[in-house]
């Protein structure tokens, strides 16, 4: 009896230690700022145990570069195989819409104030600002997963840089990252220079090779395939130009009307009330925008085919039904809305990204309006594969929604941009279902997206919105330093704007 009792005690201690470790890894136990009036959104923690059953699910994460949400309408294979067979999130954003900060969020599950990557360049930017040991791939590898990375990582990553921890197969772009036809890859320790190959096709082939090797090993696997398209081309000499398409796609979309042309904000007539980074702009050339739109859509056709071949490879290897496939972009892209072409601004065109998820238990052919972000994906991946994050994460797992369950979710999301100088921050703000608000301390904007979905009227100085501005500023101050659960709060309703009648005193 004594031996039996000792064994039971030991087992209980193991369970207690594991539970405490999980709470420490997934909650902000040291934060005493939680007011009683603010509710924590549940569902941010991942399961502590590995997935039950004889087969642990696999996961493949496909990422594009600078893809607009509406570009997905021109990718029929991806829509048929992922959207029609999975779930589409219709309000997904990249909350820090620039390459390196977005990718650092995907690598760590944290916002820039916690992972250190605020821009593409400077002391607060690029690969140099990322701790390569703080990479979510370690969660999966330490739990028995094979892990493979193929494609573009963070700007500044070179052939002599350290291999980020956690990847059992590492095949990243190193030189000519933005050139499309003249580039180098690490080749998992066997580096190779490509001078006559198309970059998307190479990433496609290497991704499929990794999937085949991992599937045949019998081990569960996680593979990231991070594409370059439809990012504009940068030659080795530094010149910028349109992204080149594969020859078979060069005839496509030549007469395509950019969707931006139908946006009232395209070449906005009066930008005098807009943030300073938009006030300085002259109207864009419709011909140049049309040409860039055509080139971008052409390059995405090769990504569309790559998604098709990925699904075919998974099916051929007999693992498709056991694999989650996630598709999104690192940020959106503006094509002349508010006279702006590009990203790294807090406008809907730059923030919005496509997000599709297919896999076991995902309700096929459905959509979700949850205001999700890229920061939510790493903890979601952990939940889907049954692994535990090894540090505090700032996102919320989307697993309940993917299974068709009701899910409590935050009502206010942090959005921000960085700069190369000073403290590394530029505009930082919040986004709610109705409002978009941000400031750099001097330059402030407030849009009522219910009445002004195109974000053309800055209401920051409108007396009717004084209460709205004050409330959103309080939330902004709370969230700019958030970590863990404090990034995922439900603050409650924002006050309604005060009508003219309500402001005028009674006679």
TrEMBL record:
The transmembrane residues are none
Give the record's keywords alphabetically: Signal
Checking InterPro entries in the record gives:
Alkaline_phosphatase_core_sf, Sulfatase_N
Q: Which residues form the Sulfatase N-terminal domain?
A: 57-387
Q: Kindly give the SUPFAM superfamilies that the UniProt entry links to this protein.
A: Alkaline phosphatase-like
Q: What is this protein called?
A: Sulfatase
Position of the signal peptide: 1-27
Q: Which Pfam families match?
A: Sulfatase
Lineage of origin:
Bacteria, Bacillati, Actinomycetota, Actinomycetes, Propionibacteriales
């Amino acid at each position: 009896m004594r031996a039996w009792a000792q064994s039971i005690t030991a087992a209980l201690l193991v369970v207690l230690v594991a539970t405490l470790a999980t709470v420490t890894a997934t909650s902000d136990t040291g934060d005493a700022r939680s007011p009683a009036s603010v509710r924590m959104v549940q569902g941010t923690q991942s399961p502590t145990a590995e997935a039950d059953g004889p087969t642990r699910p696999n996961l493949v994460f496909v990422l594009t570069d600078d893809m607009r949400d509406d570009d997905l309408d021109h990718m029929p294979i991806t829509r048929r195989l992922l959207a029609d067979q999975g779930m589409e999130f219709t309000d997904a954003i990249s909350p820090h819409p620039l390459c390196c900060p977005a990718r650092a969020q995907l690598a760590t599950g944290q916002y820039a104030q916690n992972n250190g990557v605020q821009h593409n360049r400077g002391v607060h930017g690029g690969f140099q600002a990322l701790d390569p040991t703080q990479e979510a791939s370690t969660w999966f590898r330490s739990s028995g997963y094979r892990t493979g990375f193929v494609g573009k990582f963070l700007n500044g990553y070179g052939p002599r840089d350290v291999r980020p921890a956690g990847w059992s197969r590492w095949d990243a772009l190193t030189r000519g990252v933005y050139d499309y036809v003249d580039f180098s890859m690490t080749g998992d320790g066997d580096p190779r220079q490509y001078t006559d190959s198309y970059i998307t096709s190479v990433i496609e082939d290497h991704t499929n090779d990794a999937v085949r090797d991992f599937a045949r090993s019998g081990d569960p696997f996680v593979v990231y395939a991070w594409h370059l398209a439809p990012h504009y081309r940068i030659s080795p000499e530094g010149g910028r130009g349109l992204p080149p398409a594969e020859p078979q796609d060069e005839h496509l979309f030549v007469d395509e009307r950019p969707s931006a042309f139908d946006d009232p904000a395209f070449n906005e007539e009066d930008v005098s009330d807009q943030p300073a980074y938009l006030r300085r702009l002259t109207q864009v050339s419709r011909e140049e925008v049309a040409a860039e739109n055509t080139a971008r859509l052409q390059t995405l056709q090769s990504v569309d085919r790559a998604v098709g071949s990925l699904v075919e490879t998974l099916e051929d290897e007999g693992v498709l039904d056991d694999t989650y496939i996630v598709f999104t972009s690192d940020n959106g892209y503006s094509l002349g809305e508010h006279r702006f072409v590009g990203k790294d601004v807090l406008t809907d065109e730059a923030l919005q990204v496509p997000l599709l998820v297919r896999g076991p238990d995902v309700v096929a052919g459905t959509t979700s309006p949850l205001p999700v972000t890229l920061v939510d994906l790493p903890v979601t991946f952990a939940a889907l594969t049954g692994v535990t994050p090894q540090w505090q994460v700032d996102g919320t797992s989307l697993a309940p929604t993917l299974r068709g369950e009701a899910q409590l979710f935050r009502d206010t999301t942090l959005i921000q941009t960085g700069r190369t100088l000073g403290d590394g921050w530029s505009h930082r703000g919040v986004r709610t279902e109705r409002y978009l608000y941000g400031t750099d301390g001097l330059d402030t904007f407030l849009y009522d997206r219910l009445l002004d979905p195109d974000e053309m009227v800055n209401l920051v100085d409108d007396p009717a919105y004084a209460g709205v501005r004050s409330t959103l500023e309080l939330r902004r101050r709370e969230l700019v330093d958030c970590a863990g659960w404090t990034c995922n709060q439900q603050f409650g309703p924002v006050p309604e704007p005060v009508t003219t009648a309500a402001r005028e005193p009674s006679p």
